[in-house]
Amino acid sequence: MPRPEALPEGERRDLRVPAVALAGWAGGLAAHLVPAPRPAAVPAGLLVVACVTALVVRRRACAGLVAACLVAAVAVGAVTALRLERSGTGPVAELAALGAAVDVDLEVTSDARAVTGRYGEVVLVRGTVVAITGRGVRHEVRAPVLVLGGEAWQRVPLGSRVRAGGLLGAADDGGLSGVLRARGSPEVLRPPGPLWRASAAVRASLRASVAHRPPAEAVLVPALVAGDDAGLDPEVEEDFRTTGLTHLTAVSGTNLTLVVGALLLAARWAGVRGRWLVVVGGLGIAGFVLVARTEPSVVRAAAMGAVALVGLASGGRRRGLRSLGVAVLVLLLVSPGLAVSVGFALSVSATAGILLLAPGWRDAAAPWSTRPLAEAVAVPAAAQLACTPLVAAISGQVSLVAVLANLLVAPAVAPATVLGLLGGLVGLVWSDGARLLGTGAAWCVGWIVAVARRGADLPGAAVAWAPSAWSLSALTALCLVIAAAAPWLLRRPRRAVPLALAGLLVVTVRLPTPGWPGEWSVAVCDVGQGDAVVLRAGAGAGVLVDAGPDSAAVDRCLDRLGVHTLPLVVLTHFHADHVDGLVGALDGRVVGQVVTSPLPEPAGGARGVAEVAAAAGAPVAPAQVGSAGVVGAVTWQVLWPTPAAVAGGEAGAEGDAANDASVVLWVEVDGLSLLLTGDVEPPAQRGLARLLAGVRVDVLKVPHHGSRHQDLELLTGLAPRLALTSVGADNDYGHPAREVLLALEAAGARTARTDVDGTLLVAVDDGEPVLRTEQ
């Protein structure tokens, strides 16, 4: 590689502006992490560091850079601290701290989004409170809040002003002043302005242009063009995550680059030149942001896309890196919350990887391949490598097929994006033409879906990677080594080709999966804040009771247990922490029947289970109290819920209907007796106590992750030898409650919990249950 000073002026890497931006980012992180009071502590501390550094550093150039870095850190830190302080003070925050009932006038700043929460389906809407009445006093304010509302909130358009009432609570997000749990339907005071109405019309037209296509394509075209991924199939989403294609389902800088790039080409073809091209590009960026929404993620993506366009227009890396640094610094000053945003970090990392690594890799491979092919491989590979440590920290896995998958879909992304946007625009005046364009976009997206599905099915598509500090540090070091060695490896085909073939072999040939040693009869998988219990039915077969909240976690656990067949899957109830991992549990396994709670609440969870099971070809049936069966070594019987419990007759005011309708199983496996309790709470437990009077069990799965709401007479009266709690580390619910564990231990039980002990394995030794834990 030539030395930097030997490179042409446009190709020299000037890292001063990125260094200043990184310093600003550090200041923003410090402001988020330093305890209150922030406004005085953060800027003052950084200012002291700046003064000391200025005295110590004598070289003018170095001193200037250090001073600029510290000024950026102070500026971003101060803006962040002030923003956090403002969101945490004032009338809205004070009323939130009191849990007050309020009436608010609210400007809606995000699209409504329905999610399945712990206690049912809820609609999330972000907004800015402009007036609030609480405790008899009305205040004129401007404060950001999150609204948790009912179905009526889904019909509230972005940009409107509404009036609503409800209970205001404190927010965990430092960028919010409170969380409004709305009651009833909102009253629209002012409809959206003309720009927002035009944006909504384009998005609706875009969806209509592909509504006639298969569901996956009909959802992914709007997702690719404008980040509108409502209704995305969980299985397709998991395939995209495994193959490193998730960025295509959200607004990214690539979207803007493609759209605005096509607009600039059309403008040049029409004779536009000079500064007018800049005007066209600026209008294109503004229009893109308007259609995709002015949320922080969209603004971030637009900025990163604009950086790519600037780098392309300048013909070199130098301006691209400077633009990246400026964009990062400006975004942090405008939206300080981005300092702790994972999406922002991924966008910046990918853009930096493309600017820093891709040109060198391309130039190394171009002499013996072709420049277009070398660039097509270098760009996604550089972006993926730069993001790999962050992705591993988020997902707990490293995709081995991401580069190949991105390379294969690259030819389809541009036409899908441009044709989809044209379909949305044309659909405003000509529906048949829009359907034609939408069909073309859907064909392109169909190829992307096919690549994701085939890639995810490969045996070595992804490897688990523990998100611990040491493992992530090792992964980061490995990525740095690869980045440094890649030009040398790519410069000669005799080095690059064998390496590529070896990588292909690793991905396509199934390697032995290291399992947990020794025999086991029962496994309580460590899947975070949720339940997933496996009963060993035979060689390679198991009965799965609940699937946890994380598809990757339950899939890994089943792999390590060597379970390839699931003759029976029981889902105790439909809360996300028990069913959201079903995609991973069923993926690649032979599945028999799925038995569920007879109460289909929350409705979103029930629909999701039905869709995933249908895709796997597994019939779904509600559990019936008294029903029983034998699966290999497992004998099971349904003890709960009774028809009265499903109808609500057994649930008291303090119970949750879905929890108290959990399927409770009596199980015998390898001579052990178990009671698997789902999330039943005291009202249902009192009903169970009448059924189980005088009964003893060997192993108890502690109900509801060890919540303090328990009928301790029932639990201790069962006299379990092992009491196992499936619970997530550092959860917000206080699970498991110390008094519950102490009561069980006082009754003679040995207690264990997944958040501390990892996966819990129970074996049988001379008729006695033996517990082993595996991290």
From TrEMBL:
Keyword Zinc-finger included in the entry's annotation: no
Keywords of this entry: Cell membrane, Membrane, Transmembrane, Transmembrane helix
Pfam families listed in its UniProt record: Competence, Lactamase_B
Coiled-coil region: none
Gene3D superfamilies given in the database record: Ribonuclease Z/Hydroxyacylglutathione hydrolase-like
GO cellular component: plasma membrane
Domain Metallo-beta-lactamase stretches: 529-730
InterPro entries hit by this protein: ComA-like_MBL (IPR035681), ComEC_N (IPR004477), Competence_DNA_uptake (IPR052159), Metallo-B-lactamas (IPR001279), RibonucZ/Hydroxyglut_hydro (IPR036866)
Cellular localization per UniProt: Cell membrane
Residue spans crossing the bilayer: 40-57, 64-84, 245-267, 274-292, 298-316, 328-358, 408-429, 436-456, 468-490
Predominant cellular place of this UniProt entry's protein: membrane
Source species, domain of life: Bacteria
Membrane topology: Multi-pass membrane protein
NCBIfam families from the UniProt entry: ComEC_N-term
Record protein name field: Competence protein ComEC
